[in-house]
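explain this chain.
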Amino acid sequence: MTRAVPVEKGTMESQTTLLSKRQLVCVECLRRWLDPHERWRLYLDPDDPECTVPYCQSCAEREFGRH
């Protein structure tokens, strides 16, 4: 499995408005992002840098460790 590249924090925050119009779902546990105060991580897909991959806090820590 290839490792995803984390999106910069500022970039993620600036895209919050855009992302809130679509439903985010964790790619691991399939939980929906319902609380805008909850911190999720978006990673760039190394095979497709245009694609971001969302992870909830629990799955991100399990897959990539704490940041």
